Amino acid sequence: MLSLLATLFPSCAEAKYESPAYIVVQKEGAFEIRDYPELTLISTPMQKRGADGSFMRLFRFIQGRNDRSEKISMTTPVLMSGTESGMMSFVIPKEVALRGAPAPSNPDLTISTKPAGRYAAYQFSGSSKPAPSEAAALKLKAWAAAKHLVVEGTPLFAYYNPPWTPGFLRHNEVLLRLSQKASSGR
Question: What per-residue confidence (pLDDT) applies to 164?
Fold first, then answer.
């Protein structure tokens, strides 16, 4: 019922921001296999989620603290390579990436390109706190193993909503990159 409400009434914030385009190759309930295009990211280390200013470093970059003083539109999702620490990233809007993203003024920020690839994805609602996100990652890993999918690397967490969005309306995802060897021929 709650996921139905979230589908019928998507967050206003989610609907107004650009998100990466992807192609759904296979869908099974809340699980999907997706093909993503190459993405340009602005990233910063995240030492302690919510307490180290990582989000604000990225936000200042898109607000014009870059070598061109260029304001860049916010995108969704906010990507995290860990639930407590790791890297936090914003996806650079497609149009900005095509013409070349401005260089960050802050040395703690880096621009990188995430190559196109196939990912297993699991959608979940609720809190974006570490415990529910880690539980979602375990569900995705178990599903991938049951499907005999070969994954590469660690989970990537994707959070689409601002922190004030009620948990039952939140759109969160966990992604696992699939090995090219295992995903070719699909």
Answer: 87
β-bridge partners, 28: 31
Could you tell me which of 20, 55, 61 has the C-alpha nearest to residue 38?
Answer: 20
Region for residue 161 given its phi and psi (left: phi exceeds 0; alpha: psi -120 to 50; beta: otherwise): beta
As annotated, the residues of the chain forming the CATH 3.20.80.10 domain(s) are 39-114
State if pTM tops 0.70.
Answer: yes
Bridge partners (DSSP) listed for residue 105: none
Whole-Å CA distances, 94 to 1, 19, 34, 75, 142: 34, 9, 18, 10, 33
Render pLDDT for 36-90 as a digit per residue (tens, 0 to 9): 999 999 999 998 776 778 999 999 999 999 999 999 999 999 999 988 889 999 9
Question: Torsion over CA of 67, 40, 86 and 79, rounded to 10 degrees?
Answer: 110
Does domain 39-114 sit in CATH 3.20.80.10? Answer: yes
Q: What are φ and ψ of residue 126, in 5° steps?
A: 100, -170
Over the stretch 132-150, which tens digit does the pLDDT of each residue have? 999 999 999 999 999 999 9
